[in-house]
Input
Amino acid sequence: MEISYQRIYSRLFKYYGPQKWWPADTSFEMMIGAILVQNTSWHNAEKALANIKPYLAPELMEKLATGEMAEMIRPSGFFNVKAKRINAFLKWFKTYHCDIGVIKQIDRQRLRNELLNINGVGRETADVMLLYAFDKPIFVVDNYARRIFYRIGFNMPKTYDAFRNEVEGTMAGDLELFNEFHALLVEHAKSHCKKTPICEGCPLLEMCHQRLD
DNA sequence: CGCCAGGGCCATA
DNA sequence: TATGGCCATGGC
Output
């Protein structure tokens, strides 16, 4: 049986079930969460989110001084840089009057470039926002996807965009599929495919080459 | 105690 | 293009 991205997705979906991401009440909360979770456990990002919950609206958040913001998001780590990144994001968001509906109408490529121009929003954060806040069908490349596919034995393209294009080009996926795929890869990495893996009961065991690097 | 976590920027070669 | 240092908390 040919091992493909499609087959891996099917296996993960059958095993873990629908993930219904992103865990946030609003698109705005989702995007703030995307910045807070950068290179940080979701557990710590949640603590920061809980602290700024009373300010989780662009009109309220822009009034906070950067120093106040930093203190509130302290549990997420890198709190000084993340406070600046949130400010940079808010500045961009305001140029569209914080109107999610308007931004959703923007062409996918152009919107991606605009997000990448925000200081503190790199490829992965931009793609996660495009997928979970702006409904663009996109494959999110992260270290988890790299680790999981590497251990299966795939030789993925080295650069971010080449990897993303390959998966998107070979999957014929819609919004719902890419939404679930990223969430499933994260869940799989956290439950089985950790740095020190738990291979017993792994749903991908038969297709894994055990390249535990 | 060290390792890791749902990255990105910047300087350098 | 591709490394390396830097940013920092909290769970284990």
In short: Residues 175-191 of chain A form the longest helix (17 residues).
